[in-house]
Amino acid sequence: MIELRTPAEIERMHEAGRFVASVLGATVAASAVGVNLLELDRLAHDMIRARGAESCYIDYHPSFGGSPFGKVICTSVNDAALHGLPHDYVLRDGDVLSLDFAASVDGWVADSAVTIIVGTPRPEDVSLLEVTSRALDAGIAAAVVGNKIGDISAAIGDVAHSAGLSVNTDFGGHGVGRTMHGDPHIPNDGRAGRGMKLRAGLVFAIEPWFMLGTDRIFTDPDGWTLRSADGSRAAHFEHTVAVTDAGPLVLTAR
Ligand code: MG
Fold it and tell me: What pTM does this model have?
């Protein structure tokens, strides 16, 4: 079901978005060579508790997950593309780290992700991050009243294709509201002019994720972490965005 939010509701979602942005900012700042992924999860956990917020992840148990997630942030390293389950791993020089975080504040959810390079970057990783981040910007720019969902998908896909990357559409953007995942689904590739028309009050996450060498993934034995089929590295950028009469409003801006 598609739900439209009032300006007052969007402001409350913006509060959740500011909190999610602050947690991502803190975990990015804490990410360095020698830091354990479990320390990043602990930091996010402490911030949730201090804010009186609720994790969207810890009890999350959808059909594709092996068991409840059990952690509060996704940490996807190198060939891990999405849903990286934090585990006992110490970050190394040159690692590509995606942090994906969603939380509920006073009953409203926001969802955001960012990818960084820890220590010394490889040029191809810098380029992957730049392309993925630019695809997010292009998707957001298309989130305007009168456009259609397909315009967002096409804007994202065009950036990937022009960089020579193929796109996996198994996971993509989604409606955000009282819960983390709702309608509409926003694939990271598609045809402009197709799909539902965008109206003021729609709130959704836009989240391009690309891999350097493939569009195929497999699930790690941990039951959660999705890895590239060929071991190539991945990047993921996400914001929760409200469609308003004044244009797209990024609720999770850092
Ligand atoms: Mg997310």
Answer: 0.97
Look up residue 109 and give its amino acid.
Answer: V
CA of 195 from ligand 1 middle (Å) equals 22
pLDDT digits (tens, 9 = 90+) for 174-230: 999 999 999 999 999 999 999 999 999 999 999 999 999 999 999 999 999 999 999
* Percentage with pLDDT > 90 across the chain: 96
Residue 179 CA to ligand 1 center (angstroms) comes to: 12
* CB burial of residue 209 (10 Å; 0-12, 13-18, 19+): buried
Sign of CA dihedral 45, 48, 54, 57: negative
Average pLDDT value for residue range 118-122: 98
pLDDT digit string, tens, across residues 25-50: 999 999 999 999 999 999 999 999 99
How far is residue 82's CA from residue 74's CA, in Å, rounded to a whole number? 8
123 CA from centroid of ligand 1 (Å): 26
- Closest C-alpha among 175, 232, 179 to residue 207: 175
Q: Is residue 18 classed exposed, middle or buried when 0-12, 13-18 and 19+ CB atoms within 10 A define those classes?
A: middle
**Cα 236 from chain centroid?**
6
Q: What structural domains and CATH numbers belong to the chain?
A: 7-250 (3.90.230.10)
Sequence-ordered strand ranges (E) for the chain: 54-55, 74-77, 80-82, 96-105, 108-117, 173-175, 182-186, 203-206, 209-211, 217-219, 226-228, 234-236, 239-244, 247-250
Residue 102 CA to ligand 1 center (angstroms) comes to 6
